[in-house]
Amino acid sequence: MLTIDKIFEAQRVLSEAIYKTDVIRADKVTDECELWLKTENLQKTGSFKIRGAYYKISQLSNEERKKGVIACSAGNHAQGVAYAAQKNGIPALICLPEGAPISKVEATRGYGADICLVPGVYDDAYNRALELQHQHGYVFIHPFDDEEVIAGQGTVGLEILSQMDGVDAIVVPVGGGGLISGIAFAVKSVNPKVKVYGVQAEGAPSMFNSISHGKIEHLSSVSTIADGIAVKQPGAHTFAYCKQYVDGIVTVNDNEISTAILALIEREKVVAEGAGATPLAAILAGKLPMLKGKKVCCLISGGNIDVTIMNRVITRGLITSGRQCTLNIELLDKPGQLVEVSSIIANCGANVTGVHHEHASADSAVIGCFLRIDMETRNFEHIREIRRKLEEAGFRIN
Questions:
Q1: What is the pLDDT of residue 104?
Q2: What's the Cα-to-Cα distance from 94 to each of 87, 169, 176, rounded to whole Å?
Q3: Which of these, 364, 315, 7, 28, lies nearest to 186 by C-alpha position?
Q4: Are 116 and 134 in contact (CB under 8 A)?
Q5: How far apart are CA 127 and CA 118, in angstroms?
Q6: Integer angstrom CA distances of residue 277 from 21, 31, 133, 227, 283
């Protein structure tokens, strides 16, 4: 049974294996609240997952250690288990979904674990891990629905309370619910006045739906760039803890997550993966209006984002925040048209990054053409200003 003493014991055990990550002030991201970031993206293995995995493995008996451990993960729990097993001299087999980022797969392998790639998503990897456990007698290290794992994750809450005087609320990513369960239990046990809110991806709202409907629900599919929290069904333990201790759960979409990743990189020089950026995404998107003017800690749960995904995410973030724009302009195919368009854009202070010219379609004017302009802009108001100036000059924008 989970107790606050067990979480303090986990904190003692983990002191030999993890970093006490910094809480940093983030003045440049939003003025809606006094924002702080708990930087678990800088934790060993790049995420908070090492906490629960290491504490769970530290509690295994000698007989269990000889059997070896098995785990399933979208990537971060895999690295945590692999690292903890390596430090304790225990063999580890990790089942990962085939779509897990290559960087996470290779990092897990780098910690000495054997890898089993499974077609599908996290839940498919979970089912395969259970099959292998039954076949070979491994000890299964659950990524979230285990009270010793939850206790390990709860140490994040104890650290935040010790690092922040007068914190009003902590905002936490939610997948299967292990992290927020541990944090909420720890925080409410020490200081019940502190609010704890969860954030899930709109494309994987398993805990959100379950709490909303009062019973554990299973999603038929999940789809989100936040692969670390793409879980079809919460656990029995985590559902119960969230229902009792968490003050509310909201969802954010992939565009909002991308915008948050970009904001963290550009304004705070912090690299977060999709799951780790969801708390900030909720604040920037206005999903937690009750936090206006409050002292708030966003948990940046991990930084293991694949560089190829990061490129796409940054591009999406630029578009959804009005920092990048494409205009299709209809004009007459005669000298001087491109110069005039370029002059208007330049005078508005935008930067042209791409130009594509093509003749108009059959139902347009014979001497008509289309000009597609890619631009770097400041925000959506800047885009509206450019459109207005072009239209005032007689250009049609499709």
A1: 80
A2: 16, 35, 18
A3: 7
A4: no
A5: 10
A6: 17, 17, 33, 12, 10
pTM for this model (two decimals): 0.87
Query: In angstroms, rounded to a whole number, what is the distance separating the alpha carbons of residues 200 and 254?
Result: 11
**Distance (Å, whole) CA 225 – CA 106:** 19
User: For the stretch 56-72, what's the b/e string if a residue is b when 16 or more beta carbons lie within 10 angstroms of its beta carbon?
Assistant: bbbebeeeebebbbbbb
The 3-class SS string of 53-87 reads: HHHHHHCCCHHHHHHCEEEECCCHHHHHHHHHHHH
- In terms of Cα–Cα distance, which of 123, 97, 108 is closest to 176? 123
317, 267 contact by CB (below 8 A): no
Report the C-alpha gap between 171 and 279 in whole angstroms.
Answer: 6
pLDDT digits (tens, 9 = 90+) for 227-278: 889 999 999 999 999 999 999 999 999 999 999 999 999 999 999 999 999 9
User: Residue 376: in which H helix or E strand, if any?
Assistant: strand 368-376
